[in-house]
Amino acid sequence: MPPDLARIVFIGFIIAVLVYDNRKEPYPSKGLLIPLVWFMLSGSKSVRGWLGQTPPPDASIDYTSGDPLSRAVLIVLMLLALFVLYKRHFRIHDFVKENKWVFYLFIYMGVSILWSDFEMVSIKRWYRSIGDLLMALVILTEVNPFLALQKTIRRTGFILITLSLLYIKYFRDIGVGYDYEGFTMWVGVTTHKNSLGQLACVMGLYFTWRLIFSEKRGPVDILFLFISVWILKGAGGATSKTSLIVYLLGVLTLIALKKIGNDPSKISKILMVVLILFLMTNVLVEILQNQSLIAFLITSSGGDMTLTGRTYLWSDLIQIGLSSPILGSGYGGFWVGDIGHDLWLKHTWKPGQAHNGYIDVFVNLGLVGLVLLVGFLAESYRRILINLRLNHAIGSFQLTFFTIILLFNITESSFNKPTSFLWVLFLLVVVGIPSGEFDEQGGHDNGEIISS
């Protein structure tokens, strides 16, 4: 098929799917378009990238100025979100009362700008992260927050997964790139195979959840699950192994949750059994292969024990972080291209993140930030267990995405990272769904629009 014809066919397909889906489950409100656009941008290219204005690889970049065009679009979306919250009579006190740890975390992120070496960069990144939270609040204040969350994820998948397929198959100058070793990698609507892998993993798990838990599942869910998994496998030379492994673990989590029902106490028992099996298997592999189970799995899958240089980077980052272990370097002030630290001289692949979310929080926010993050995670987990008991399908959805994002942050970074796809998703999942009474569709039984 000629590329121009393919573009018309694929765009027509997207429109048809959106119309069909809206007839089955009407869009909750027009205000939901705001977080939809934000979420789509977080899971794809920048605004300038969508306009085809990406700078060439050898161009010099001013890492302190950022992208004015993307910044302007994000500010407009934030102002629109604030207007929607104002019209809905959003009560900040109610939100803080039920989400204390996330409130403390965001306040500390803002305060830590005071000791950042790049204050303006930190300020820009902090208000973008505030924008992430605003989008979650727009969804939270819908009459049916869970339906609103589903529609946001679902429509993002319809558009971005379809366009990624179009770019990979028919516009390879856009949808295919090369990693630093020269291997071909699929990037689709993103800028890197790992970003595309995260997008495909999340969408694949969402449509898997639909097929397992939703009574409204249909052929569209099967089709997009197939496309997501096909994209997830990536090009032969360069595949996001983390995303592939996390997807498989996510599917196992969904199946396990379907089996155990809505009794949270069974989760602890299953985790204990998994831990015992892991330890027993590890001992067996140590005896037979003379290496740990994790090392055996990595080398057997064609990987290396340094996780493509990540372990060396982690060692260097921890040493740098120990120079300010309590407070960190200040939010958003650590990764500023090649001018913040000399890491690019040692690591020629030019990392722009720690490739470990927990280490990234440590170097940016110190041990105080890690404590606040752990408190936020514990608060979120408690809320998820409550939801699991009240509505098994919703609780299973939350727990699965909560788990995979924790796993992703072992080899990738998303915690506290502004407009990061996984960080936005995390806030949407753990903050954007109430823990009050649910009706069968995930709405508020009492009709209140502000509840957590």
Unreliable stretches covering 5 or more consecutive residues: 433-452
Can you count the helices?
19
Q: Provide the gyration radius in Å.
A: 22 Å
Structural class call reads: mainly alpha
Biggest sheet statistics: 2 strands, antiparallel
Q: What is the number of strand segments? A: 2
Q: Which sequence of SSEs, written as H and E, runs from N to C?
A: HHHHHHHHHEEHHHHHHHHHH
Helix content: 55-70%
Query: How many distinct folded domains?
Result: 2
Could you tell me the strand content as a percent range? under 5%
Keywords:
19 helices; 452 residues; globular; mainly alpha
Would you kindly provide a written description of the structure presented here, covering whatever features stand out?
The protein is mainly alpha-helical and 452 residues long. The chain folds into 2 domains: 3-50 and 67-262 and 308-430, no CATH class; 263-307, no CATH class. The protein is 65% helix and 1% strand. It is built from 19 helices and 2 strands. The chain has helices at residues 3-24, 33-42, 47-50, 68-87, 92-98, 100-111, 119-140, 145-170, 172-175, 193-213, 219-233, 241-260, 265-289, 293-300, 310-321, 343-346, 357-390, 392-411, 421-430, and strands spanning 176-178, 184-186. A two-stranded antiparallel ribbon has the order 1-2. 40% of the residues are buried. Residues 433-452 have low confidence and may be disordered.
